[in-house]
Amino acid sequence: MTVKERYESAKEIYKAVGVDTDEAIKKLENVKISMHCWQGDDVIGFDHDGPLTGGIQTTGNYPGKARTPEELMADIDKVLSYIPGKHKINLHASYAIFEDGEFVNRDKLEPKHFKKWVEFAKERGLGLDFNPTLFAHDMVKDNLTLSSPDEATRKFWIDHCKACIRISQYFAEELGQPCMMNIWIPDGYKDIPADRVAPRRRFRDSLDEILSIDYDKTKVYVALESKVFGIGLESYTVGSSEFCVSYAATRGILSLMDNGHYHPTEVVSDKIPSLLLFNDKIALHVTRGVRWDSDHVVLLDDETKEIAKEIVRNDALDRVFIGTDYFDASINRISAWTVGMRNMQKALLYALLSPNKQLAQLQEEGKLTQLMMQQEEMKTYPMGDVWNYFCEKNGVPVGEKWFEDCEKYEQEVLSKRN
Ligand code: RNT
Ligand code: ZN
User: Fold this and answer.
1) Is the pTM here over 0.70, yes or no?
2) Whose CA is nearest to atom 1 of ligand 1?
3) What residues in the chain have per-residue pLDDT under 70?
4) What distance in angstroms lies between residue 110's CA and the mean position of ligand 1's atoms?
5) Kind of pairing between the strands at 282-286 and 236-237
6) What residue segments make up the domains of the chain, in order of their start?
7) Which residue is closest in CA terms to ligand 1's atom 3?
């Protein structure tokens, strides 16, 4: 049977439980996922040769990581050729591209330092999202940035974030679509602090200062990402969940939830409907923590599916900025990117192929036995046939067919880098 024939058969099967597969595909085609650029080079960027700091870590030494903007862009192109649909690329400020021997520090960054990325995005019809980079830099003092007691340190990072808002607006204007700019700081203490409020007060004031610049709020959506702890910063995190959610709610910016940033039994899927009740828009970093915020490749696991279900059931595909955030240095990075991106799309498809209204109705009527039965039966419905058709329709390889080409790229290109 051809991919199309299998799809037609699956369509009938889903129809019997009231699911319109054509409709699901149409919706999925319009979902942009913001692909993090930093899987390609282990979160290093182009503006420093120091190590990765900030309590985050890549582990592994798989050969072939991108060393230059050209290599990173070529790798991203490769990944995009395996992913159905048009998406966004999520950049960090540390990926500035300096030309003709020029170098400026992060507090002095300008739109022109990202011109090549804008050209890259324009040529491919992609959007861009952005992140100030408040780690892996010598102005991080005692693991502190925007919450530092040192005024010069705070000022440096405030200026950096202001510069990033201007760059984000440039992205939005050039590409004709909004740019989400996410602020995450590593600030914290390894051991028990004596004062938990002073750093948070300073962080709050620094953020207020950053947001005081004039920018177009219909073009730039500033978000704030919380965290529970970082490596070497286990006892105290300035930008905790309560801090970030409260700050965002009172200042009219977005809350960003990274599902690696909570205690291991806490789930982001359950937080999504609560935040959506009180916020017009929210943002996500989809990742996979294994026992800690380890940033493993996103799988089609229960929590990824549950996150997707919450977005779809709440009819919030246009209210949630979905981005990926993981960095595995122990396997082929092109494959890591591709598997995670495709899994996020598969999770959304799974959610779109679920008879959500009917299931909610069963819950309302208290028919919980039937609800469990039906939810479980949905797990073995032929989603793969719909997914394969979606890939074929969008001109990308079906099933595992992309991997052969990925291996060829490894042999011909990646393995020649060192
Ligand atoms: C760190 C945060 C943050 C980073 C990226 C590189 O724990 O998740 O989002 O992963 O900014
Ligand atoms: Zn994150």
Assistant:
1) yes
2) 56
3) none
4) 22
5) unpaired
6) 32-354
7) 184
Q: Is the CB–ligand 1 distance for residue 37 below 6 Å?
A: no
Amino acid at 114: F
The dihedral through the CA atoms of 77, 72, 257, 127 has a sign that is: negative
- Does the active-site annotation cover 227? yes
Domain 32-354 CATH assignment equals 3.40.50.10770: no
- Give the model confidence (pLDDT) of 243-280 as tens digits: 999 999 999 999 999 999 999 999 999 999 999 999 99
Map tokens 């991108």 to a residue.
Answer: 66
Ligand lying closest to the C-alpha of residue 131? 1
Residue 254 has which token pair? 């977005």
Report whether residue 184 contacts ligand 1, using a CB cutoff of 6 Å.
yes
Per-residue pLDDT tens digits for 340-372 = 999 999 999 999 999 999 999 999 999 999 999
Instruction: Say if residues 40 and 295 touch (Cβ distance below 8 Å).
Output: no
Position of tokens 């995450």?
184
Q: Scan for tokens 């405030």, then name that residue.
A: 158
Separation between Cα atoms, residue 356 and residue 359, nearest integer Å? 5
Residue 227 Cβ contacting ligand 1 at under 6 Å = yes
225 CB near ligand 1 (under 6 Å): yes
